[in-house]
Amino acid sequence: MGLGYLIRVTVTDQETGQKYLEPNVYATPPPLLIATDGMPSYGQIMLSETIASFILVLTSVTVRNYEKKQSSMGAVVWAALAMAISLGAVNKIFRESSGGIANPAVAISIIIWQEFTLSVDRYNDHSQWTYEYATSFIIGPIAGAFMAGVCYNMQQHWIQTMRNFKKDPDMTESAVSEASGQSFIDSSREPKMVTPKSIKADPIAGVEAIFKGSKTHKANETGHSRN
To answer: What does the alpha-carbon distance between residue 33 and residue 12 come to, in Å, rounded to a whole number?
Structure first.
């Protein structure tokens, strides 16, 4: 805030004698606040900030993981490009609602700046930015970032699970349960004939049948060897 004052000069209006700062100190609020003319729109602001933050955080963690795995200059360039595109898209999509800020620190700074400098604003006698909107600009991005983290972790979990299936098609029931976080093999069912058509119709049932068939085949081989 001190820097904002330093880069401006104080001028006196010759008609009113009141002092103002130039360039103008008014921080342009999101168009939604101007259009509603003071009517509360906390929910719209919060939802916009939640979605914007979700997009930015999910893109960030994804490209950081990609950059870490690749460890090359090309990966750094692609990561930077992806972040730039996502940031530009968020600003474009949510410009008319919340401004596409997706950053509580920036939003709160703008609100505080506007409230403190309103008295030296030359063209506005009231502020569209109010402290009531601070809650929306804080909770929205935090909620969006949290959901992005949960979505990313679930995505990585299932990617790793599918890789385990590809590496070892004959995984045991305990290995499957450990890899996927759940046991979806019902030992009470009888082994069924597995065909490509049946797998396409019901992938989970097809996987069950494959594992049960594998276990039954191994059990039969063990019984024959003992005999």
So the answer is: 30
Q: Tokens in use for 127?
A: 């502020």
Same domain, 205 and 110: no
Residue with tokens 């029931």: 173
For the CA atoms of 51, 56, 60, 66, the dihedral, rounded to the nearest 10 degrees, stands at 80
Residues 118 and 126 sit within 8 Å (Cβ to Cβ): yes
Helix axes 203-226, 173-180, angle to 10 degrees: 150
Q: What is the CA radius of gyration of the chain?
A: 29
Where in the sequence is the domain holding 89, given as residue range(s)?
2-167
Q: What is the DSSP letter of 193?
A: -
Domains: count for the chain: 2
- pLDDT tens by residue, 84-117: 999 999 989 998 888 888 999 988 888 888 777 7
